[in-house]
User: Fold this.
Amino acid sequence: MIDAAYQRPHRPPRYRLAAAIGGGILLALLLGSAYELVAFQSLVAVLDLAGLLLVGLFALGTWLVIRAVDHDPARRGSHLLRAAVLIGVALALFLFAVNLLNARLNLAGVLACIPTTGLALWVIRQVDYNEREPWRLVLVAAGWGAVVATTLALVFESLWSYIVDAGLIPGPGQAVATAFNAALFEEVPKGLAVLLLFLVMRDEFDDVVDGIVYGAAVGLGFNFMETVVYMSVGGWPQFFIRQVLGLFLGHATYTALIGAGIGIARQVQGNQRKVLVVACGFIVAIAAHFTWDAWLWYFPHPSDPALLVLSIPLQYLAMTGPFFLAVMALFMLGLRAEGRALEAQFAAEALLPDGGVLPREVAMLASPWRRIDARFQALGRHGFGGYRWMRRLQRAQLDLAMERWHRTRREIDTPLEAELRLRDRVLAIRAGVKPPT
Amino acid sequence: MRLAPEETRPAFRLMLALGVVGLVILGVGLAQFITFEPPGQRTGEVARIVGIFDYDPRTQGATGANQDHFRTGQPFAAVVDWSSLPPLQEVGSAWFSGGFSVDAGGVGPAPAGALASRGVVPVNFGSQRFPAGRYELVVERFSKGRAVEVLARKTVVVLGG
Assistant:
């Protein structure tokens, strides 16, 4: 056999050298821009980094679309999903860069707010103890709040200021209009995120509890970016006000009210009642936000720092406190209904000959404390592997009971096979084999 | 199969009650808005603000060039051309400071014809140093002693330091 002079004549070796030089230029540009951003807070560096990332992500997304359509149609769905995620991340990065410019490149603020917001997201996810929402959806919700809702609010609040506020008489009327502007154009974009999750991710949106979790996550994301922007003007006191005092009592509460309305709609029969309860969630969230801003007209913040320290917590307690209590009441009602329903479904499942729940497990599964106790017993007997096994088993059993609950209430649009698959998954975990996908 | 609406009924009712509370709050806000921004008051009149200038408290006159920003120790005043309005129209001009419209001095209300000699409208914040921030001059039409229409407005920024 005679070797060709060029093994791959369409890719001569000099192309590798050119690609290496091109890659080196790109790397140098990225590293230089990153250094410039950190050291000098350079606007050009932000544009460079965001632009390069955007181009890269869009190029990758386009390549995946081409693969889906032309090169690898057998895996079309998977390629298109990945392309959609990449393009979504690219758009989110673009909007984040826009918000960061609005916040005068306050990177210190971003870094400071990540731990507090992250902790708050962890807390709201933990308290949903029966069936925790997947991190990916909680983070998508918070991301929407941080970049999409803030951008929409910025655009529409500015338009309102130019069109409506500019013609108003300074005084109480204008103060009301300003408060309404903020309430309407911040709550609606935030609420849309919860509504989209409700429409698209129905399997992970079970009831009022889930609605509150997703709503609060969106609100925390919004609060994150708003804090970064306010810190760029007001400094660290703004961090204390928004990330400590107002972490749960501001945007998280308002959007949780919208989420609660949508979560209740998930389980209410009849379209009219669904629309009514969703509308109530939006109305009370807008009203709660409105009272916060309207308060400042009647009780402006004092200039004396000592009085200011008192007035801001008082404002939170008086204006947002009652709405926070309402969210807590809705959350407790939801958890109680969920707990009772799950207990009934565990008991019904235990009666099946090949059910996913054993009769002796019903009492344990019905109580969050006993579930934790059972995990620690498994930890004591079989080590960390035993703990993980028990946690997986319990989660699969909870998923099964939740599916049964929705099917009993005719709130489900997945076929019966979904329930059968969940049961098979429980049985597979119990038998110690790889669960069916 | 019988459904179990009672599981969601308490939350549903609570949410309806909250919706009613929300409507009441927004209704009170709307009432306040209508009280202070009464509908049907547009006349289409426009007042002319000549500009914003340095202010000399000694001569009570405006000097220098038209500006859009000042420093905290630098007194300034607007010059309003009252002749641009019908002489009998009840009007006034006021400075507002900050996001919550703190009153910072003004002239009127009086018929536009009577204000001809009071075209210079200085900011009066009770001291020589004004807080930094945004200041807005608004020329308003009055009816029964209350401002009912904005005829012109102009904004300047006072810088700190």
About this structure: The mean pLDDT of chain A is 87. Residues 106-339 of chain A form one domain.
